[in-house]
């Protein structure tokens, strides 16, 4: 999941207004309607592949099959990650949105708090085959604890360290790094002749916030206390973010131009084209297919963990993925729920997750050999053992926006050659904490 920076007040205002502003409009939430008895629903899909067009090519055959099976037409729009949260928040306040939408699962509790989405209570989940069909970690990232899910998971994922085996061999590196020191040492060997050891998206608020969470947790940080109060400006959080920034600032294994990467594809393209030898990312399956990168040159390993027994947590990913939500004010509730059932069905789960290199979110989809590959097995291992959910609290999306945007600015300073100290990071986190607390 990836979003461009978004002003705090826009988020907070949208969340505050949403519960009362979803009145719907004549002809359906998203303009879908019925003509001659045929039902049409609108669907905002998130950008999972290398382009909006490639996603349409992946999705359309499945949408055609859904129409053949049900008679329901799905009008799909693939929305870039840089726009998706803004678009969803605008729809919750105006009532002018789609019938069905993909949401990043870390936003689940935040969007649930708007009251704009249909709860998937026990009856609704029974219609999808029962909650026991779903993977526990993925279903847990669908809303606040103790409440019915605000969405259902359709693509499961976490983070891993993608690495170029050929470039590793040429640099005399026998295996992917297991420790942070090994990551830096490998990156330095690989940074040569216009190639860089690692690629990042330094201007993507969401990517930055995700890495802040992972490396902050490795230092022992928690973004929120048990009551849900933000506590961003901790020494542990600052240390985790400084650790990440230093890959560019101190160790110089990241190209300074990466500080301008924001659209969720540029760092991936640097990796698949050989401009960078490593990438800490979710699935890049569609990019690999389209790039022509030889399969034997590609490997995946867990992001290095902190030393066992230290103060930090053994976390190197989080329970990532994409959920499917239904707007509560849709005039096509039954059709939307049929679509949710279709998207979580065994066949559709296998088809789409194979295409995107992500993990099915239902148990019965795993009898396909495609999910027995070393890469998928590595993702499964991380998701099941060392990934941790981001906090399922209503303020989580604001955490991503505020902390991620602060990191955008810090990366820009690093790229400009300005020093960034732990104190600088702490000051930015304190400002983000203040904005979260006061709303300004």
Task: Tag the structure with descriptive keywords.
alpha/beta; single chain
Strand-helix topology:
Blueprint: H1 8-18, E1 34-35, E2 38-46, H2 52-70, E3 73-79, H3 81-94, E4 100-104, H4 108-112, H5 122-127, H6 136-140, E5 152-157, E6 160-164, H7 165-170, H8 180-190, E7 196-199, H9 205-218, H10 235-249, H11 266-272, E8 276-281, H12 285-291, E9 298-301, E10 317-318, E11 320-326, H13 333-343, H14 346-356, H15 374-385, E12 387-388, H16 396-415, H17 422-438
Parallel strand pairs: 2-3, 2-4, 7-8, 10-12
Antiparallel strand pairs: 1-2, 4-11, 5-11, 6-8, 6-9
Q: Give the percentage of residues in beta strands.
A: 5-15%
- What structural category arises from helix and sheet content? alpha/beta
Note poorly predicted spans: 1-31
Largest sheet: 6 strands, mixed
Helix and strand string, N-terminal first?
HEEHEHEHHHEEHHEHHHEHEEEHHHEHH
Number of helices: 17
Average pLDDT metric: 89
Would you report the number of β strands? 12
Dominant shape: globular
N- to C-terminal distance: 25 Å
Helical fraction equals 40-55%
Q: Over all CA atoms, what is the radius of gyration?
A: 21 Å
